[in-house]
Amino acid sequence: MMPKHQIMDKYGLIGYPLGHSFSKDFFNDKFSAENIDAQYQNFEIPSIEELPVIIADNPTLMGLNVTIPYKQKVLSYLDDISPEA
């Protein structure tokens, strides 16, 4: 029996625009340097209403960073929020 292929975890950034962001390179370099089997991806979405599609299309998505203009708008899409947030 062949070993089951493990799908790497995915993390990302949502916002608009994201051309100026250093996050993708920073986190992918960090994952590589620390032998973490994960990928970081930018999700440039012109409308927060596109967030459910991003989540549905990326089943291995473990977490997202959020930039302006969506820092407050994203709250309505959350099931729970910690006191620190």
Summary, kept brief:
By secondary structure, this protein is of the alpha/beta class. The chain contains two helices and three strands. The radius of gyration is 14 Å and the shape is globular.
Detailed description of the structure:
The protein is of the alpha/beta class and 85 residues long. Helices cover 21% and strands 24% of the residues. The chain contains two helices and three strands, in the order E-H-E-H-E. The protein has helices at residues 23-33, 51-57; strands at residues 9-15, 38-44, 61-66. A three-stranded parallel sheet has the order 2-1-3, with helices on both faces. The termini are far apart. The model has no long low-confidence stretch (mean pLDDT 91).
User: What is the strand tally?
Assistant: 3
Fraction of residues in helix: 10-25%
- Sum up the overall morphology in one term: globular
Terminus-to-terminus distance: 45 Å
- How much of the polypeptide forms β-strand, as a percent range? 15-25%
Key terms:
alpha/beta; 85 residues; three-stranded parallel sheet; 2 helices
Write the layout of secondary structure elements.
Layout lengths: L8 E7 L7 H11 L4 E7 L6 H7 L3 E6 L19
Parallel strand pairs: 1-2, 1-3
